[in-house]
Amino acid sequence: GQVTFSTLKRPFVYDRQIQITDAFQDIGGGFCQIVYTGVQVRMLSGWGNIRTKGVVMSGGSVRSAYNKVFADRNSGSWDMTRNRNIAMPILILPNMY
Fold first, then answer.
1. What is the 3-class SS of 38-52, one letter each residue?
2. Every domain of the chain and the residues it spans
3. What is the per-residue pLDDT across 26-47, written as a single tens digit (0 to 9) for each?
4. How far apart are CA 61 and CA 88, in angstroms?
5. How many angstroms separate the CA atoms of 51 and 66, rounded?
6. What's the pTM value of the predicted model, to 2 decimals?
7. Per-residue model confidence as pLDDT tens digits over 48-67
């Protein structure tokens, strides 16, 4: 599907900002932008499985979770394990558009 957003009849307003984490946060009936939210690296037999993270929504709650594989890198003996979320706040728009 396609998301349509227009300020033709209503001004741009936002309800609040949230700091995205791995735990679900209630946004009620609001909307948030579709955005990459970080990176997660899992170690599998000496290889770093690097995945991007994005927004997951369930009911009226959102969180950051890994999705698409970005790359697999041989790390030798170095542990590449990481789980990072972006520091930029995410805008929550009210359900008025």
1. EEEEEEECCEEEEEE
2. 24-93
3. 999 999 988 999 999 999 888 8
4. 18
5. 6
6. 0.80
7. 999 999 999 999 999 999 99
